[in-house]
Amino acid sequence: DWFGVGCDGGTVVALDMRTGRDEYGNHIGNSMAGTLPSQLSGVAGLAKLWLFDNRISGTMPTELMELTRLEQLVLANSAPQEGLPGYYSAAPLPMSGTVPTQIAALEGLGVLALQYSSLSGTLPVEVTNATSLTKVFCNHNSVSGTVPPQLAKLGELGTLNFANNSLSGTMPTQFAELEALANLYLYTNSLSGTVP
């Protein structure tokens, strides 16, 4: 057995680098540091990549978008809260760059978690090709631009969190079509107008 490696019939299907939960129920990383190797794209059967609460830095390799069986992509950092078990006393090294447009290839992706990084730029409309998305967490970054109306194509989307970014403009009226949307977090942006 290798820590964090899940297999199915000899094929690696999961990499989960959490070590458990603390007394507060928060996920705990295992202090991995450095950048994501592009060679991860060679793990063709990978469905779950969880690197939550580690010290991942650098940019997101576009080669990750070749993992077309990916269902959960969690590259998020946790909120730095000094003194709480399971959290770093200083902010984790942030992942930077933009969300690759190649994310469109991940049609089976259900969970995308990129919060508490240093991602910037606009949200690529290509993300709407990942029509299986049910949860998107991109809060506490530096994402700018407007909220793409094309997000209304994500009919299974139940949670969308873009709080604490630099989004501007108004909420697209098309959001009224998101019948599955139960949790919408957009506070601490520069949005105006009303929610449809």
Please give a structural write-up.
The chain is an all-beta fold and 196 residues long. The protein has strands at residues 5-8, 11-16, 18-21, 27-29, 33-35, 48-50, 55-59, 72-74, 95-97, 111-113, 118-122, 135-137, 142-145, 159-161, 166-170, 183-185, 190-192.
Helix/strand layout:
Blueprint: E1 5-8, E2 11-16, E3 18-21, E4 27-29, E5 33-35, E6 48-50, E7 55-59, E8 72-74, E9 95-97, E10 111-113, E11 118-122, E12 135-137, E13 142-145, E14 159-161, E15 166-170, E16 183-185, E17 190-192
Parallel strand pairs: 2-6, 5-7, 6-8, 7-9, 8-10, 9-11, 10-12, 11-13, 12-14, 13-15, 14-16, 15-17
Antiparallel strand pairs: 1-2, 3-4
| Apparent shape | globular
Total beta strand runs: 17
How many helices does DSSP assign? Answer: 0
* Subunit arrangement of the protein: single chain
- N-C termini distance: 50 Å
Mind summarizing the main beta sheet?
8 strands, mixed
Give me the secondary-structure category: mainly beta
| Mean pLDDT value | 84
How much beta, percentage-wise?
Answer: 25-35%
- Provide the gyration radius in Å: 17 Å
Q: What is the helix content?
A: under 10%
Low-confidence segments, given as residue ranges, are: 81-93
Order of helices and strands: EEEEEEEEEEEEEEEEE
Record the strand order, biggest sheet. Answer: 1-2-6-8-10-12-14-16
